[in-house]
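Handout, section 4.2: multi-component inputs.
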Amino acid sequence: MSPGIDLQASFIELLEGFGLTPGVAKIVWMPLPMVVIVGAVTVLALVSTWLERKISAAAQQRIGPEYMGPFGMLVPVADVLKLLFKENMYPAKTDPLLFAVAPLLVFIPVFLSFLIVPFGQNLVITNLNIGIFLWVSLSSIAPIGLLMAGYSSNNKYSLLGGLRAAAQSISYEIPLALSILAVVMMSNSLSTIDIVNQQADYGILSWNVWRQPVGFVIFWIAALAECERLPFDLPEAEEELVAGYQTEYSAVKFMLFYAGSYANLVLSALLVAVLYLGGWEFPIPVSMIANWIGVSESTPWLQVITGTLGIVMTLFKAYLLLFLAILLRWTVPRVRIDQLLDLGWKFLLPVSLVNLLLTAGLKLAFPVAFGG
Amino acid sequence: MNLAEGVQLVSFLVLAAMMIGAALGVVLLSNIVYSAFLLGLVFVCIAGMYILLNAGFVAAAQVLIYVGAVNVLILFGIMLVNKRQDFTPVKNAWLGKAATAAVCVGLFALLSTMILATPWAISGAMPIGDEAIVEIGKHFFSDYLLPFELASVLLLMALIGAIVLARRDFLPDELLDRLPEQSDALTLPERPRELISGSKK
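Output:
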């Protein structure tokens, strides 16, 4: 396994060349990846709102946004500007403190979770040893924000939406965590980097989706439910609850909810790509191609290409899944709340337990294929 | 003191102040919803303490279990009940409050003397850090196997109890015309049900 380019080491080396001590150089480096990721995630979320508009239009045989910039690409920018300049208002008899804190509680955990999303061997903010577990635990904070929004809005629809959101996310967290556990069992690590490296040996053939087909489907369903996407968007079902917990929100606070939900969708798609679709790996391993054309893996230009290809592949897989999620939203009807809870507790939970058991058994029986 | 130690000290002080403030808020605020939300903050601060102690896995587990499950369920319960009832002041309530305060102060004094008096054997070894998950797993399946299994039995009991409580068909008005000779010492108030084998198709 080639180490690839290590931006941090190169950057620190460069600063040390200017006469800074290693400690200071590291402090200068530290905020850079965080700022880059926050900016990149915002852009990715905005792109997914544009995709949502375009794909929904295509699904309904419309054209969609057309005049604002090429192919209506400036619509998200206009959205953000509009929401920024709206009046920041509190409806009558709300609880102002909780009303203001709630969107932050939904927004911050999602952005924090991007700490562990890898775009390459060294292209990750921190390679935490608890990796994917951090995401599971951070995503469990969001329902508190939703309950808070529902309670403080002084609106029956909001409260119902918040309660539904909490019930839904508690129910679907369990199958989600169990399907992650099966993957973790195969890769012997919670770290996202290790999970991708374990899928790297034979290109597309060694991706986890072939070894964990059931886990893949369960994870995708549960992730859609956690993101409150359409087959499971009961907390904000327009026809029943106006807009659920966000009914009373406007301006920047609404923008936080909106951006948080799309960033969460992008995050889920990225994590499906990392857990099941080989992360930043090209379908044919780059090292194999390098061998065929007779180039050493440590050649600088090849490493640059590998790094770029990693980012492109991760985003390509994530956006492929995002396309699927948007298509699902505009073609599948919403389930009822009892169907939703039945599906979570009576179907997904037992199936994911069986999947976990089977994975453990297969790991003992075929340690070669299932990560001994 | 280098930078890392400074950051650690400052974050410890901030976390401790936040934790104590939030915990006081849980106890002293009269609005139960605020108390529940502040309880979540206390749990998050405890998770932060675990991170300062190099126990990342325990911190994540703390957030997942206490904030994500326990606190959400408490909030859920409060919001489903949400009975707006005015609190009627009780006569001589200060007696109860004084007794509670005395017990709490006594407990606090007892625990602090215990903490100060015990000669703690602080290990000088480096914190295990990232390898902690593996070690925790090994301990669970060797010398801590019994507590681990007992905890799972406890959870199973709670699970079954919750299902029994949730599945009963509770009708308060049926309590009134219940036959007097029927002993209800060990039964939950619920609608009398026919056995499955006795019911007709």
